[in-house]
Amino acid sequence: MATPNPVRVQQAQPATASQPQPQPQPLIPTDIFDAQSQRFYALSAIFMLQSVKLHNFLVYGMNTTSFLGWLVVDSTWILLLPLLRIPRLSPSWTTQIVLALTVWSLDTALFDHSPFTFSASMLIPSLPSMPSLLRTGGPDISTDERRVWAHDAVDSQKHLLGQHTVKLSPISTAHLNPAHLSFCLAPPHNEVLIPVLFNNSHPNSIVYSISALGDKSPSKTFTLQSKELSKIEQRWRDYFHDASLTKPGRTVPDSYDPEYENDDYNFGKNDQAASKKGSIGRILGSSEQPPKLPLSPLARQFYSRPLESTQSITHISVTRPGVVRLVEVKASDHSGFRISGSLEVLVVACPTARFEVPKDLPAPKARECAGTEKELAIVAEGVAPLKLNWHREINGRRESFVAEGIEGNPDASNLPLSQNITIPVALSLSSLGKHRFAIDSLIDGAGNYFEPSLRAVGSADHFARSVEVIGRSSATFRNCGLASPVDLKKGGEATLVLALSKGERLDNVKSVTVQYVPAMGFKASPYTKEYRPKTTADAELPIIVKQPGTYTIMSVDGHECSGDVMSPEVCKVVEQPLPTADVTLETLHECSGDVGVKASLVLHGTPPYTIFYTESKNREHAREQQRRISSARDEIVFQPESSGTYTYTFTHVSDKHYHKVPLTGEGRSIRKIVHPLASADFVRSHHSRNPESKASSQMNSCSGKTVEFQVDLRGTPPWSLKLQVAGPSGTEMIEKSDLTESRTRLSVDIPADVDAEGGMFQIDLVSVVDANRCERSLNVPGIPVNVQRLRPEVKFYSSDGQRHVTILEGQTASLPLRLTGLAPWSLTYRRTGDERTRSATLRNPNDFLNVEKEGEYELIDIRDANCPGLVVPMEKTYTVDWVPRPTAQFNVSAGLVAKNDSIIRPAVCEGTEDHAEIKLTGRPPFQISYAYHSESDKRSDTFTLSSVQSSARLQLRTSQGGHYRYQLLSVGDVSYPLKAGQLPQGGPIVKGQYLEQTVFTRPTAYFRTPSRLSYCVGDTLSSRHGHGDGGIVVLNGQAPFHLTVSIKNFANNHVVKKTVEVKEHAWKVDFSDYSLDTIGPTLVTIESMKDSSPCPEADPSNLLRSVWIDVAETAAVVPLDRKEDYCVGEPISLQLEGTPPWTVHYSFNGKVRDATSSFSKFSRVAVEPGTFKVLTIAHQRNMCQTQLENLSMRVHQIPSARVSQGRSVEDNIREGDQATIKFELLGTPPFTFTYQRTELMTPEKRGKPLQVLETHTVSGVTSHTYSVSSSHEGTWTVTFIADKYCRYPTNPPDSTLEAA
Fold first, then answer.
1. N- or C-end of the chain: fewer Cβ atoms within 10 A?
2. What is the DSSP string of 752-816?
3. For residue 426, what are the contacts with CB-CB under 8 A and spacing of at least 6?
4. CA–CA separation, 1097 vs 495, rounded Å?
């Protein structure tokens, strides 16, 4: 210390007068508290601390917490006292040491209960009981029921020695597959690791068995030791490494260390190792290792949840399919585990699905033609029923499909065997573009999940197929047909153009086959020739021809598909003759003289024509002129305005095909001196009647040898009219005379060559003569006549000859037509069975006839723009069918048909799996909409299930008892699908759409209340008044009930089973033939029950299935202070045996008295001489009454009792086991002793009184040893002992303990 202690200075060097030493000042100035007051307060504080210490000792006794606390408090005030520097109260360091040792010794004597230390109780044996004496001391009751003071009894701890502590270790359990995961074997590992959840201990060995699937041979048993389990755990980490997955409470070292091999499973047992290697580690090891196998969502959830401190997980390895069962689990101490939870785990081969093309069907190409019907097959392998998810993409538009309840071999449906099931998938390749079919997932009946992206082994073609659908190519003649032939010059050639189909998703034309038939009269040989375009990009294919005739497209072939022949498929080539002109020149004389020259021209060839001529006057230079003529005959009138000599010469002629052909022959030139009245014209429609008008109206002739027309005549009748009929090969003059009507209908014969082959000819008016006999030439436009001998035709088109189409109900069918003739066409048709015909107007030679109803359609009549036509007899009908709507009904095997047409399904028990088969017709996959109604809770709902087979399996609801009714609402297939989000609008439901089933509720039995029942030794186990609802068993189900009950006596471990028939729903335990002969607890347990239904009992794990019975000894009285002579004031103490409260009838000196006691010690003090007799005693609320004889007592040595030979013994047992507590009794038999069980001492309860859990008194023990078996936890001690004469303790037992 920096400042010297004044006390120490005075002790070391006494002060002298010559050398005075300065006195240090107190820490608290004396002007506040003087030195005397400071000493008083300091000593008072010290004495107060010691008083509190003594009170602590008297109240709580010895305990470690008080001992350590008072050591700190005493050391603190000893060190602080010198710092106050109080005069005459500042001890030196030696004084401090002596003071500290003294106080510490006192603390040790008072509070430390170690056997190696000196205890205050060695000097004052009565001190431990002082708190009790302080709380319970007082006067006793005399024999006349007055309160008096009794003498203190002599107590000593040597009479009650030892204690037996029983500690319960929890039952070790093993739970196979606690998360109910599904397991399957998949390459490349072909191994599954099944988790086993352990509680309260870690396994040292695991024994499990594997039974082959569908095989009745014995199962094989396997044993895994701790080293093998460690290897499996390391392999599990290698398989399922995932850096994101952690499990709190499990420690995995960063680097593998054999010392910490099993740290993952020893929760709470190796905290130092856990802190050394990492408090919380990842269950999957280092995050640098890439994941090898995926975890399902359920498995990830299971492995991610935190474990409790007593739990651990180990895996067992299975490499072949079968049923895995846990047989036995042993801990390192060879103790067994209780196997709970799942009894078995099913391991099967993992489901797989792939596309496979059947051998009898070709594999789909990368490109397919539109309209092609193909079929793929999905081969699914797994345990039925299977659920398949797949989708189809058409040009990026995705459509998903689900197929549920896929079954394979019906004989193997009840066995968990893997089956190969082929599922057909029809490919409807009607839409152009890219079609992709892919498998999404497959789930088998065991819950295993297959997804190609996770477990697929093989090429991508196994799980997805793609095909490009292209349109068919086509070809047709462009600008050519039977009605519009191509002209061919003599000695020349013509080009026929084939128009080829082009498009982004169309097949390219590879070749076109054309057939040639020579024209009539033309000498040539017919042939068939194939033409190919130069490049695939060509949209036209030119054909050079040199011969007239008919060219027909026979077929079209594409590079990948067969093509279609479009109309017009026939092209006619006609050879045109050279044009000629017959020129007739005559003087124009109009009755009075020549007024000009008239040139009459008859032209042969193909109009329009151009005539070339020269004109000269009076020998002047000739000027070349030309005139365009549209008809086969024309007149040119030359009427010069002035007189003179004119020369006209015709030199050349041109038509549509030839240019400037020279004219030959005589009469082409005329020379005249030119020095100037009836008329006629054709009746024309929509044209001017002006003779100079160049407009003309064409006439059409479809049949007959003549053609009629009308003529307007002007002048004085009668008239004579000259006509000229000009055909391709010649002309004919016709004269019509005696015409009297101004508008006259005339007829002329059709030229023979035109009548035979068809073609054009023209009728011209030549001249007219009126009544004045003056003839006048006419120059009016003629009328061309089109003679059509090829009548228009109509037929239904089909590329394969099958005129048949199938459509969905409500859709429109477009029936392809092929037409010849001139547009537009008027078509008449009818549907077979309809009396009324229908008509349609068509404008395209490849038009379609749109119909909506099913049936056979027949073509009746056709007419083009000019003529009526013909219907091709062999191709005049087309059949339209509707795709049948799907139907659904419950299979007749589902049950019996009732009068209301419902199918009654056999009743099942609650929780029993059941299903009904639904028979389907249509095109899979199907969607079935159904509703179910529960009569018990009045609940209805609607669901939809899918199927790819002709039958579906409807899983019936059996999880809750009641009556259920199922109704099939609607069914859809690939043609008539059910629309999502809409009311069911699928196919019709035929008879058999209702199904009913009754589900029986499983019976249950349980005790109404857990109240304990009290009986006396010797009673029969029958119902007693006062138990209330205790012992009443509630029965649910259908009466009568058969109940099996076990009665276990824990005193002798004897178990009796009894069966009783109960006709009511409540029964009170009543076995009059069973006697309760031993003291202690008895357990009544409901083992099983069965009602009148065929259903087994429901799971009783959550029900109150047992009730305790406390059997107490018969009420008795044992004298505690038996002496021959009693001193006045000495209490007469009796120990009451039984269950409180007691009723005691006693007499003293002939006076009878009654007393009620709630404590086992009954004491009365004799204040006067006399005889004390106990007449009767009863306990259990006066139920067990005992008649007693006179008691005689003498003074003897106080008896002793030792538990476990007087030592403190600790016994660890498992839950369900029992420990044996041995009592050694010293004295003279018979003995009566009381023992109790208190709660265990824990660090939190140090310094606090322990609660007494139970107290029992045993009497009539004739041997010196006594044993009690117990399965409860606590510390067993003896609180009272009495032999034949004496008892200990002499004081009454602590009432607070008795009450507890």
1. N
2. HHHHHH-EEEEEEEEEEE-TT--EEE-----EEEEE--S--EEEE--SSS--EEEE-TT--EEEE
3. 373, 374, 375, 923, 974
4. 95
Could you give the CA distance from residue 512 to residue 529 in angstroms, rounded to a whole number? 8
| Contact (CB, 8 A) for 444 and 348 | yes
Cβ atoms of 748 and 763 closer than 8 Å: yes
In this structure, are residues 1232 and 1260 in contact, taking their beta carbons and an 8 Å threshold? yes
* Distance separating alpha carbons of residues 613 and 607, to the nearest angstrom: 18
pTM of the model: 0.48
The sign of the CA dihedral 145, 147, 149, 153 is positive
Tell me what pLDDT residue 262 has: 33
Count other Cβ atoms within 10 Å, centred on residue 246: 17
Question: What count of other Cβ atoms lies within 10 Å of the Cβ of residue 1143?
Answer: 17
Q: Enter the tokens of residue 905.
A: 């399904």
- 131-143 mean pLDDT: 50
Classified as helix, coil or strand, 109 is helix
CA angle 181/186/188 to nearest 5° reads 135
Question: pLDDT exceeding 90 applies to what percent of the chain?
Answer: 18
**Where is 101: in which H helix or E strand?**
helix 93-111
- pLDDT tens digits, 851-901: 999 999 999 999 988 888 999 999 999 999 998 889 898 888 888 888 777
Q: How many CB atoms lie within 10 A of CB 951?
A: 14
Confidence bin at 290 (pLDDT 50/70/90): very low
pLDDT category, 700, cuts 50, 70, 90?
confident
Q: Find the radius of gyration of the CA atoms of the chain.
A: 63
pLDDT in tens, 1280-1294: 887 776 767 765 444
Closest by CA to 62, choosing from 1275, 1249, 1251, is 1249
Cross-strand partners of 1117 = 1136
Q: What angle do CA 912, 914, 919 make, to 5 degrees?
A: 180
The per-residue DSSP string of 1077-1095 comes to -SSEEEEEEEEEEE-SSSP
Is residue 808 exposed (0-12), middle (13-18) or buried (19+ Cβ within 10 Å)? Answer: exposed
Question: 163-169 and 1208-1214 as β-strands: parallel, antiparallel, unpaired?
Answer: parallel
β pairing state of 1172-1179 and 1274-1282 = unpaired
Q: Which two tokens stand for residue 1264?
A: 């010196």
Element (H, E) at 27: none
Measured at the alpha carbon of residue 94, what is the angle toward residues 92 and 100, in degrees to the nearest 5? Answer: 100
Q: Record the tokens describing residue 821, joined without a space.
A: 């003739």
Query: Which of 71-75, 408-412, 974-978 bottoms out in mean pLDDT, i.e. has the lowest?
Result: 408-412
pLDDT in tens, 1227-1241: 778 888 999 999 888
Which among 321, 101, 292 has a CA at the least distance from the CA of 220? 321
